[in-house]
Amino acid sequence: MKKKINMRLVAIAILAILSTVIGVTIVYYGVFKKQIRHDLCISAELLKDTHYFESVNIDKDDIDLSADIKELRVSWIDKDGTVLYDNDKAASELANHADRPEVKQAFEKGIGESVRKSSTMNKNTFYYAILLSNGTVLRVSTEADSVISVLISSVPLIAFIILCIMVICISFSHMLTKQLIRPIENMAHNIEDATIDTPYKELAPFARTIRQQHADILSAVKARQDFTANVSHELKTPLTAISGYAELLETDMVPDNNKKHFYHEIRNNSERLLSVINDIIKLSELDRGESESVLEEIDLYDVVAESMEMMKMNAEKRQINLEFSGEHCNIRGNRELIRELTENLVQNAIRYNNEGGTVNVMIIKKESPVLIVKDDGIGIPASEQERVFERFYRVDKSRSKATGGTGLGLAIVKHIVELHDAKIVLDSAPGVGTTIQVLF
User: Fold this and answer.
1) Can you give the chain as a three-state secondary structure string?
2) 121 with 22, same domain?
3) Which of 113, 151, 156, 342 is 20 to 30 A from 238 (CA-CA)?
4) Higher-scoring residue by pLDDT: 68, 376
């Protein structure tokens, strides 16, 4: 960044110098041309006022202005364009000047002027012609450097100035960039400290975004660490139980009448282990968004009805009354994920209900389709409601483990809701029950 700032400052300085030099030269040259024309006009008028070229007795051979006027070329031209006199060359050697622009203008308007460029000498010749009272034309001219020639001649000076300015710019740019960047570096080193003010107001949105991202990253790292610890614990518990029961059976330390109980515990812990692994795999798939692109128009009522058929047996096992009602309505979603969402919500409602309780599942259509799962179970305290969608979080850990809960069901629900750009609303009270609405 420092190098870029330095280079850009130097480039700006060089550009400014070149632009200034070119601009000033062009302006100066414009003034210079006006001055030359003015001087030629005065010279021509002075020569006219002498009436030297209007005398009837003048002898062309006796005119000699070569020594008197060194830098001014004087030409005397007859009415037919013949050069009568020229102080630079013999008149007989010069071609007819009737076609010269300045001469034609002088014959027509009384005065004429023009500028002709020399392609080989980088010179401009300025001409001024004036009509005399005897019908002849007096023309004066002088040479001057062209604007390109002036620029070329100033190249050494320009190069020297650019070199000096570059040295000054590099020195100042180093100092300036240090002053500019030091507060930013200080903020970067203390990115977690929100009390440090942003050095420049233009960086305030950037700083807020960076700090938020930094906080999100730290939060994600902590969540990943917690998730890893929880996974290890959730897998270790059933594996330890399975290993312990198997060891006892292997060493014949279990009476025959108790073996069936041990086999039953091994199977239960195996199922729990398999359930945790399946939920972890499902969460991993949702994290990677593997199912996000497989969206289609589906009838929410039909998908939920399929899930309810699968949930009936679980409800009957726990003596829970399962009721389903609603109307057909279409949503754009993933059929398998919606089925997974429904099963997790209903399974939770059954798991955390009381024996003989009721779970109502409804599909209603307001502004948009809504899936409602309502139970009259143990409910969730207000202090716990924000955390129930966290991975491995259980309101009643003993009940969850006793009924086979993994603590990942609502985390999966949250992911599926986000993938469908839906909204989830939780309303619960201890001893009253829980109502969860998914608004598509």
Assistant:
1) CHHHHHHHHHHHHHHHHHHHHHHHHHHHHHHHHHHHHHHHHHHHHHHHHCCHHHCCCCCHHHCCCCCCCCCCEEEEECCCCCEEEECCCCHHHCCCCCCCHHHHHHHHHCEEEEEEEECCCCEEEEEEEEECCCCCEEEEEEEEECHHHHHHHCHHHHHHHHHHHHHHHHHHHHHHHHHHHHHHHHHHHCCCCCCCCCCCHHHHHHHHHHHHHHHHHHHHHHHHHHHHHHHHHHHHHHHHHHHHHHHHHHCCCCCHHHHHHHHHHHHHHHHHHHHHHHHHHHHHHHHHCCCCCCCEEEEHHHHHHHHHHHHHHHHHHCCCEEEEEECCCEEEECHHHHHHHHHHHHHHHHHCCCCCCEEEEEEEECCCEEEEEEECCCCCCHHHCCCCCCCCCCCCHHHHHHCCCCCCHHHHHHHHHHHCCCEEEEEEECCCEEEEEEEC
2) yes
3) 342
4) 376
